[in-house]
Amino acid sequence: MPQVLTLSEVEALTKSGQTIPADAMLTPSARDFVNERTRYAGRAASNGTASHAAPARNGSAPKAPSIPDYEFKWTPGTDPKTPAEIERFFNSPAIQVLKQRMCDMGSRLWTRDYTDGNGGNITIRVGDNLALCTPTLICKGFMKPEDMCLVDLDGNQLAGTRVRTSEAKTHFGIMKRQPAAKACVHAHPPHATAFAIANAEIPSCLIPEAEVFLGKIGVAKYQTPGTAANADEVGEVGRDHQAVLMQNHGVIVWGKDVEDAYWKMENIDSYCRTVWIAAGLGTGLHRFSTEHLKDLINLRQKLGMPDPRASLKECELCDTTDFRPGAVCDAPTAPRDAAPNAEVEALVQKLTDEITRKLTGA
Prior knowledge:
two-stranded parallel sheet; alpha+beta
């Protein structure tokens, strides 16, 4: 097993002038620290200021602006094998960070009403054939790191005291087919799930952010949750779509890390809610052009997100089906100058005469 080094341990090695072992596994914060030092050293060397670079107050290089990278990376072929190795890996500092992050994402799902009861589940891939997953029958708003499970990609549980979620195989249906899928989140956000049960296609070419961060939204046909058939169906659709509507069920999204995947859950529900509100205004939906969509697809690819639409012709990009709001009421109005109905008029007159006759005794 490789040695796991935390930020404080890496800082201590750096301050003492020692080299970080090449095969050491770094926690995300420790990796950020090393990357920042590397970038700083490169800039200092290129502009000739290396000898004048002022150390920070703690002796490390000053921090440069950066984007945090929460993706868990491992060396292929190094999965722990023995029970002792697995247990040590499962309780290592790097994995503890991921467990806490899963709890945080669960709390955010529950707070936003994306899950109810024991609904929803979260997975993070941590090896060639390893993944962390949430347990079954647990509220996502109140999970603790010690509740998490370690399983292989066939769903066999390797560590953890609680039973894994029954839908883990659905997540792995995607991970096995799409290597870029390092984390999956499944939930039942109300607005997106409404589209899934109404069999309503989510229209495209409406909001730029959705095209960049969600891409084309896929639809997986209904299969019984937790079954191999569902894993195959969702896996096939999820291979080319980072956000998938599961008919009569909910939504599953994937990303390079669990925060990335969670963001897509927020993105898709917000998008569906906005489309629903806009459609109700009754003025139709204005779509931007396929030329503009092509620009957004290029931007999505520059951000490192795959998009199978890149190979399509412009005329094939925006869906052409008209999205219809849930209720359209066109009540017919009678013309104001409509001629009286002769039969009705005769019947009314007959009834009037009969009532008059009885009242007057005629």
